[in-house]
């Protein structure tokens, strides 16, 4: 396993986000597992509203993998829906 090298994938895609969910909400969702290094919700350029998905980057792959395995499909806090997570793919 890598020790945090450049090519290490440590970002998760998160989908089915509610219109009211903000970056601060997602930071809170992952705080108990060491926290997210960065969160980005993708927004419509014209309206500024969420497109319903985003990306959560963790400090390392191990934390991201733990978040994916332990949270995917489980209820989101204060929401009537489950986490929908997957590895982010760029390119």
Describe this structure in words.
The protein has 91 residues and is of the alpha+beta class. It is 21% helix and 24% strand. It has a four-stranded antiparallel sheet, covered by helices on one side. A hairpin with a 6-residue loop joins strand 2 (38-43) and strand 3 (50-57). The protein is globular, with a radius of gyration of 13 Å. The two termini are 23 Å apart.
Count of beta strands: 4
| Number of helices, where a helix is a run of at least 4 consecutive DSSP H or I residues | 2
Strand content: 15-25%
What order do the helices and strands follow? Answer: EHEEHE
Give the end-to-end Cα distance, rounded to a whole number of Å: 23 Å
Characterize this entry briefly:
The chain is an alpha+beta fold and 91 residues long. Helix content is 21%, strand content 24%. A 4-stranded antiparallel sheet has the order 2-3-1-4, with helices on one face.
Topology:
Layout: E1 11-15, H1 23-30, E2 38-43, E3 50-57, H2 61-71, E4 85-87
Antiparallel strand pairs: 1-3, 1-4, 2-3
């Amino acid at each position: 396993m890598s020790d945090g090298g450049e090519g290490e994938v440590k970002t998760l895609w998160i989908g089915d986000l509610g219109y009211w969910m903000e970056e601060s909400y997602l930071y809170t969702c992952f705080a108990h597992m060491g926290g997210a290094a960065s969160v980005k919700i993708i927004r419509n350029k014209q309206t500024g509203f969420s497109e319903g998905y985003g990306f959560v980057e963790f400090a390392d792959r191990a934390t991201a993998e733990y978040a994916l395995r332990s949270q995917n499909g489980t209820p989101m806090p204060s929401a009537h829906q489950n986490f929908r997570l997957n590895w982010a793919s760029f390119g």
